[in-house]
Amino acid sequence: MASSQFPFDENRKVPATLEQFVQYQILETIRRQPEPKALDPQLLLVCGRRAAEIKARLPQYQNSRKDFAQLTAMRHVLLWRTFPFNDLPVEIVSNIFRYAVWSSANSPEGILLRFRLTWVCRRWRNIATCDQTLWNTIWFKDAKVGYQLSKLYFERAGTTTLDLRIEDDSKTRLIQDQPMTGDDMERVLDIIMSKSSQIRMIIVVVELWPPVLVLLDRLHRTSQSLQQLERVEVHRTGRPYQWDGPHYPLGDYEHALTLCNGRTERVNFLCLNGVHIDWETSYITNLVNLDLRRMPPELGPSLERFRCVLESSPKLKKLSLDGAGPIMPTGWATHSYPPVFLPRLETLILGDCAVTYAIFCAGIIHAPGVRELIVLNFRGPDHTPVLQALTGKFPELLIISVFSLDIRKSPWSRRIVVRWLLSIPKIKFMRVGMMKATLMAHFFLDGRLHIDDDIPLTLTPEEENAILANGSRIILCPELEAFEGQHIDVDTMVQFIYGRKKFGVPLRKLYIHQNWLQDMTPDEKNKIQEQGYEHDFIDVTVPMSTTPYERSLWKQLRGG
Fold first, then answer.
1. Which superkingdom (predicted)?
2. Distance from C-alpha of 51 to C-alpha of 39, rounded to nearest angstrom
């Protein structure tokens, strides 16, 4: 494969997929253009003819990623120059502005884009500033300027619903090494609680306990006015895990508070990260997303309370238990609690816990419609029992991500892993990170040797030949089409790809995580580059993003 087709760029980070690269080139082309001005009719005709000429030439550049993207970008710019944008009705212009803002790659870019819309001309400024929905997503991260930008957003949002994010990090703090305090949080809340009845979403990311406690206390005291609150996320990034509040300025705070004084009828999205609440008196029901992370085992909800939350959330689509979850009762294996049926659960995340706890959590739910499973970072020398507990639970699984899974090399482990893979035959996308070669090697095994429990774990050559003489090979996960690697052995990945091709079930797409790509040695990159993959078989994924293949799967599932 030619090096120009390989998505490695040593000098700068550029988007990996062709679609992303074209968008990148469009932006680069626009940045190089002179300040726009009105064109006379003759120049408009010239631009139109040039755009048509480029369109006719594009097919011959399909195999040249760079030339194709650059020509496409130039054609877009020429077409935009000829379009009478200001003749459009205000309603259509507003809709275009919203699409532009909401499709921005990240929050800082979206913030800047909103202001740029107001700098173009008087008409654009008037349309943008009068559209409240352009300003109702507010990121309180501008402490260095006294939250002046956030206040401006807050004012322009008018009476529409508010989606708020309060974030504290070293780059945006007034004093770099001084995390947000409780008093700092009070000042921010004094601003936003003036429109508490309009708040639809609040996300808070801070390091220390005091600002978290101030937030919980204010939500507790103003619960009656939080009539539209639907989403609550509280992330406390620092240590220690637990805080009993003896030195906290609110003298009456000694134990965990309820969430919004129990008035959470409309809340359907709850994420608590490094934060605990009073579970017994918090009214949590009708959730669509429940995300619990980093809680000491004794500070989670009781098993009975957790089951109650699940049972009262029949529309739950995503459940994340990442180093957190219900308290495991003593002698839990002897209890005869039936699993809670979650008919609409699509995504399950389970990890950062002991193997026994993971097995306990897996046994709580019955969700045969799960389409995405993420398992990661279990504690213990052998994680095979977790796979045994998951076998047969998710027959409709399409997407799986596995990180830091430790599997022993033994006949018993081999049988468990193969039986687990046999139970998820519809898998189409797999992401593997920070793993040894053991898991990938199981894909080369013949399912016929493990499909029945009465087949011995260790076969004699005669027994194995007798089994293989009947029928054709049972390929594990035969529908697997796309794979993403993150910090795994390069040789293992290459062997896996060619093994799938050998068995007649080749992958359609290989994704390489950008962080792993940056950590690869030149020799490792060469090993991949020398394999002669088809054009556009490899793409690079950026951190904290889903792949185009995953997005396509979800779109198909939801009929989009």
1. Eukaryota
2. 16
